[in-house]
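<instruction>
Derive structure tokens from the sequence

<record> Sequence and structure tokens follow
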Amino acid sequence: MKFRGGGKAPARAAAVALMLIVMTTLAACSATKPAPDVTFTTLSGRKVAMQDLRGKVVIVNFWATTCAVCVKEMPDMARVYQRFHDRGFELVAVAMRYDPPNRVLDFVGGEKLPFSVALDPLGQIEAAFGGVPGTPTTFIIDKRGEIVQRIVGAADFPRLHTLLDAKLRETT
């Protein structure tokens, strides 16, 4: 099949797709909404309920070991956790349902991640958050339990630090 305009059609299609992702992300983040009432099961079997995290600023990061951006981002997420944890911050990394649990365990053990890592074998947590268009997808939740931002793709860590610092200074 030949496209008019030479090889520009695929590039235009990619640009339009990227613009739609950005617009969708911005629209999703323009108003806060309550975080879903889910319970995470960590790799160690510990249960962490979203309700129990009220009063803290929380990141819920959906990721996969097969996602190069996710793997590259994990050391930065560990530094975010270490920087803000003592101020009332928590981070839960949720492995996607298609990620083999043994691969997740190996990765987490090798990286010595300091935060909670949960499995979502049936995709129920992902569905409760409204679906994940791609990995990584990161939700920032304030002390009141409201989703204040959704980031699809790599996080801009300086901006993330600024947002977390501001949210941690807020009173409930």
In short: Helices lie at 8-29, 68-84, 101-111, 124-128, 157-169. The two ends are 58 Å apart (CA to CA).
